[in-house]
TrEMBL record:
Record-annotated Cyclic nucleotide-binding domain positions: 15-135
Coiled coil: none
CDD domains per record: CAP_ED
Lineage: Bacteria, Bacillati, Actinomycetota, Actinomycetes, Micromonosporales
Record InterPro entries: cNMP-bd_dom, cNMP-bd_dom_sf, RmlC-like_jellyroll
One of the Pfam families matching this protein, by short name: cNMP_binding
UniProt name for this protein: Cyclic nucleotide-binding domain-containing protein
Amino acid sequence: MPSLSVFDLLAVHDFVADLPGDWITRLAGTGHPVYYGTGHRLFREDGAADRFWLLHSGVVAIDFYVPGRGDIVIDRVGPRTLIGWSWLTVPYRWQFGAVVAEDVRAVEFDAAAVRNLVDEDPELGRELTARILRVTADRLQKARHRLVELYAYPGVTS
């Protein structure tokens, strides 16, 4: 079975499928398909945010480090979603961590290249930013709920 091009992978991904074809083509030029096995750490909190992913399969655990408690999972996200938003704003440092919980197939993007596209096309930039803000708001809400859960039940660790 032939593998799909990056354009084809984006054209069927919920995050960008409804964008104009020329935008998808431009985004496709900044990404490449990847596979990561269970246990692979995509990034750690405060590391350089130089890429992001659109998941096609698998699960990623979003976490953050709590001194004395270790890495605390605040969310698990699956296919058809975005992983990583910290690449969009200065200082380009991850706000959370992420580790592969179930083998992942995704399109990985070069963040600097996408920022260049955003600078070149403000309309594309506004649309991507709005979509990323929706993901961010959802993840922050889940993090808030997870922190309440941890505070209410201190023995919970993952």
